[in-house]
Inverse folding.
């Protein structure tokens, strides 16, 4: 983590409040024991004003500290909840694109499960520590009452802790395995949501994913959690039996054998019952702390997974490429990991390309030829195996990749339509101009930098996505099969009117397209074939769409 998730000062403050609250509780018990002793020794309890005043002050202080303690704990947990969410989203936003695609289910599982567990753990940790402190204070008080009873109690506690320790690793193993099943569930849920259309077409898929796999995950998760929490419950039961045995032993055996005063025995039992409550609270919180430890390791693992050298790190060189004249791609290669690509070792390259500012480039090629992969490489979303990219004479690398990416605006084939423009200086007149050009002015509204839409078709949504990109004023616009969802009328308008207009405005356009009848509206045409980028001219006999 970049910064501490929880402020140590705030945590210590809340812990101290819990400590004061526990100390006041013990003070109340001490007062009760004092009154019991007076009752036993004097045979009658005489009303004394000082005890009443002390009791009133004690209860008042306890109420105030407890209220403030509860408020501070809630405040701390809520701050932690959102800090963790922000941290996980930061990890995601800084991630390498390729890693993100492979591990997106881990992010979802982390946001759904781990963040909530860690938030609860902050509260649990405070209560755990205050209960632990209460135990220490009680043991100190027992030692004050009787060293013998203190030693007996200590033996029982150590025995219970030893028994608990024996099953600790086993229970933790089951909890960790159950957390893995949670990750499997999130992955399945992602398939059910994103593959809903395909699943709706095939009852067999629906049965396998929606019933068989789901039931298998549920059965495994239930079994693992039952084993873990049953083991924890048995440990708690063992502790209770040991304490009840200790109380009965003192009252029935040690009291007479060692000649303990009746008042001491009564005080001992009273303190022991209070101590038992603190121990049970501690034991009850341990499973949550185990789960929190697993969740924390998951968050750390998530951070480490996405900490690749090609991520967007703080910029150390201040190059500004707004006035660039050309981009040069040299000997660029990329090979898919064998676990990702269906064809082992498939890749693209070497690719050499020079992109001049203000030009229009069309790229076409067959399915699987590498067009989209090249586009992702050019955008800096994939890390090339070899090769260099230059902006004018500046080599793009670790310290300026973030600036380089800011040159591009893209509408992918699987684009996401944002409802706002991420340009604080956007001109409302320009917004209306683009909405009119793309024939969306009667369907799309604009207010406070946010678009409002009603009843847009797939093609209209894609037009609005391009409008958003243009309003960001990025010098290079990259389009992946943008016109495929447009009707014949608007497709013709896009190539014959809009692309020339954008070129006049100074945009550089790189488009993957198979609309060969409009290839005459581009400056350069390239064909992607078996991972190689081949320059094609209008006069070249290979000038055909695949």
């Amino acid at each position: 983590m970049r910064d501490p998730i929880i402020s140590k000062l705030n945590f210590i403050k809340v812990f101290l409040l819990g400590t004061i609250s526990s100390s006041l509780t013990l003070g109340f018990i001490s007062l009760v024991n004092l009154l019991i002793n007076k009752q036993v020794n004097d045979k009658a309890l005489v009303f004394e004003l000082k005890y009443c005043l002390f009791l009133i002050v004690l209860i008042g202080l306890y109420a105030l500290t407890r209220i403030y303690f509860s408020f501070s704990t809630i405040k701390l947990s809520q701050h932690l909840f959102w800090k963790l969410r922000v941290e996980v989203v930061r990890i995601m936003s800084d991630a390498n694109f390729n890693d993100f695609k492979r591990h997106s289910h881990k992010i979802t599982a982390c946001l759904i499960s781990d963040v909530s567990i860690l938030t609860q753990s902050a509260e649990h940790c405070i209560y755990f520590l205050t209960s632990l402190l209460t135990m220490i204070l009680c043991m100190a008080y027992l030692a004050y009452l009787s060293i013998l009873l203190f030693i007996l109690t200590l033996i029982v506690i150590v025995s219970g802790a030893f028994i608990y320790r024996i099953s600790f690793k086993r229970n933790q193993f089951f909890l960790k395995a159950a957390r893995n099943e949670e990750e499997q569930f999130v992955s399945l849920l992602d398939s059910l949501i994103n593959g809903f259309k395909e699943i709706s077409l095939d009852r067999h898929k629906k049965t396998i994913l929606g019933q068989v796999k789901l039931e298998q995950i549920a059965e495994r998760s239930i079994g693992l959690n039952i084993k873990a929490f049953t083991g924890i419950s048995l440990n708690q039961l063992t502790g209770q039996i040991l304490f009840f045995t200790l109380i009965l032993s003192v009252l029935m055996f040690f009291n007479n054998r060692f000649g303990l005063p009746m008042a001491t025995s009564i005080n001992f039992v009273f303190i022991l019952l209070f101590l038992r409550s603190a121990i049970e609270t501690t034991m009850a919180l341990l499973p949550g702390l185990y789960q929190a430890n697993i969740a924390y390791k998951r968050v750390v693992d998530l951070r480490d997974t996405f900490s690749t050298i090609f991520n967007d790190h703080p910029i150390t060189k201040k190059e500004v490429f707004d006035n660039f004249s050309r981009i040069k791609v040299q000997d660029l290669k990329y090979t898919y990991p064998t676990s990702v690509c269906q064809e082992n070792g498939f890749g693209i390259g070497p690719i050499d390309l020079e992109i001049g500012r203000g030009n229009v480039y069309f790229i076409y090629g067959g399915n699987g030829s590498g067009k989209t992969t090249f586009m992702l490489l050019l955008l800096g979303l994939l890390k090339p195996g070899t090769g260099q990219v230059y902006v004018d004479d500046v080599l793009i690398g670790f310290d300026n990749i973030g600036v380089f990416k800011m040159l591009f605006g893209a509408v992918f084939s699987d684009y996401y339509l944002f409802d706002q423009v991420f340009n604080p200086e956007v001109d409302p007149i320009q917004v209306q101009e683009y909405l009119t050009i793309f024939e969306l002015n009667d369907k799309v509204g604009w207010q406070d930098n946010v678009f409002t839409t009603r009843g847009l078709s797939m093609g209209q949504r894609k037009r609005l996505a391009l409008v958003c990109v243009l309003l960001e004023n990025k010098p290079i616009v990259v389009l992946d099969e943008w016109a495929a969802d447009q009707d014949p009328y608007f497709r013709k308008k896009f190539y014959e009117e809009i692309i020339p207009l954008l070129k006049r405005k100074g945009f550089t356009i790189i488009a993957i397209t198979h609309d060969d009848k409009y290839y005459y509206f581009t400056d350069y045409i390239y064909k992607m074939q078996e991972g190689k980028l081949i320059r094609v001219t209008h006069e070249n006999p290979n000038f055909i769409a695949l």
Summary: The first strand starts at residue 326 and ends at 335. Residues 308-318 have pLDDT under 50 and may be disordered. The longest helix spans residues 203-257.
